[in-house]
Write a structure and sequence with these properties.
The structure holds two protein chains of two kinds. Helix content of chain A is about 70%, strand content about 0%. By secondary structure, chain A is mainly α. In chain A, helix 2 runs antiparallel to helix 5, helix 6 (about 105-120) runs antiparallel to helix 7 and helix 7 runs antiparallel to helix 9. The longest helix of chain A is centred in the C-terminal third of the chain and has 31 residues, at about 190-220. The radius of gyration of chain A is 25 Å and the shape is elongated. The model of chain A is unreliable at about 30 and about 180-190 (pLDDT under 50). Chain B is mostly helical. Chain B is about 75% helix and about 0% strand. Chain B has seven helices and no strands. Chain B has helices at about 10-30, 35-75, 80-100, 105-115, 120-150, 160-185, 205-225. In chain B, helix 2 (about 35-75) crosses helix 7 (about 205-225). The longest helix of chain B is centred in the first third of the chain and has 42 residues, at about 35-75. The radius of gyration of chain B is 22 Å and the shape is flat. The chains are: A mainly alpha, B mainly alpha. Chains A and B meet through helix 2, helix 6, helix 9 and helix 11 of A and helix 1, helix 3, helix 5 and helix 6 of B.
Chain lengths: ~230, ~220
Amino acid sequence: MSDRYTQNERERAIDELIADAQRRETPLPESVEPSGKKKSGIFRRYKIKDVVFLAIITAMTLITGSVMPLLIHIPVFGIIQLGLGLQFSLFPVIGMMKVRKPGALVLMSLFSGVLLVFMFPPMFFCLLICAVLAEALTLAVFRGYDRDAACVLAGTVYMPLTLPFLAVYYRFLYDWSDGANEAVSQLVGARPLTAIPISLTVIALCLCGALLGRLITNELKKAGRLKQ
Amino acid sequence: MSFFRWKPRLYPIVAILASVFILIFGIVCARMPGFPYFLAGLLVWLTLFGCGRACLRVLPAALIVGGIFSSLAYVSSGRDAASALAMANRFGALFLALVPGMSVEPVAMTRSLSALHTPRAVTLGMLIVMSFLPVLRAEIGRVREAMKTRGAGSPLRPRIFYRAFLIPLVTRLVDISDTLALSIETRGFTLGKAKYTVYKKEWIRISDILFAAGLAAGAVLVVLW
């Protein structure tokens, strides 16, 4: 049998076998799914580990933001955002930097809804709308979450975007109920000089939270504890 | 026939809607004279529908927090008793709005959402958020204990807070989520369009309709007072 194949043919066959084995062992590039279909540029499918991590991060955000029910009754413009800005920017940035897929912020807002509807329902709807807006803005600017700056931007604008929505809600509520708590309308309408510094403080607070989240994530990545 | 069977546990979606209604109604109608009676009636009504234990759990917090904020409202409004009462009413409504939610089991919520064909990624996330709150709270306690044991210093100092609290906490979150994801995947859970069945479906019952009708009747009585 061995006489039927020359030495060169044997060597070629061995080389082809090795090349084939190497081809099989080489992992598929990021943009190709195991089925062979090419993934779209921005949107990628969520895995179970992504959903679980986002849910755990949301639970931690809600635990640290459990003062919200007490803050909603204080009729001062921006008090909720001042109380929750740090937590609602730090943890979402960690979630987005781990998952790095569009829709992570919207998913976190949806998950938080399960508790927010009992704590303060308008805040849930506000957060959901603001998550969509923040993601749209980030995707328009960065076209994805591959860069850290994209996650920081989304985390920074997420909470400050709720300021106008909640201000409209409070104005409607107090105008409609009895007008006893006029602090909101005074701050937003008659005294913009007070509303502007509060809004800037909220933005600065959220930026600090987002940068802290980025710092933590990068540190954990360096230590090899955080993998995508 | 299960529709007519009395079940002292609220259907999750009814509980959510009831919470939203109580909170919004409480904020809007807190100054109405009949509102304290509405709150008292609501307390009895919730107890009748299987939320008695949750009511007992929130009452002390409601009395303390409501008392503090009512006192502040009384002082800040120039000793106006009506303002203090309105503030107490708002906090009463706030804490009673939490009761239906506290009495809903996470798994019942997931089953009812699954029966309504909510995407599985959303129901899974919501289930984890509801179930893991006590676990994560305990984890915060453990990280604090570890800080004390190591003699890390005051957590009020930013550098110590970052290094000795935030980093270990986030590391633990990553570990917990990895373990949980692996556990879910090994039990055959998928996020795709695979067929699935809902074990023990949750359905709306006559007791839920009675509960909602009672709540609405109470609200109408307060408005007409």
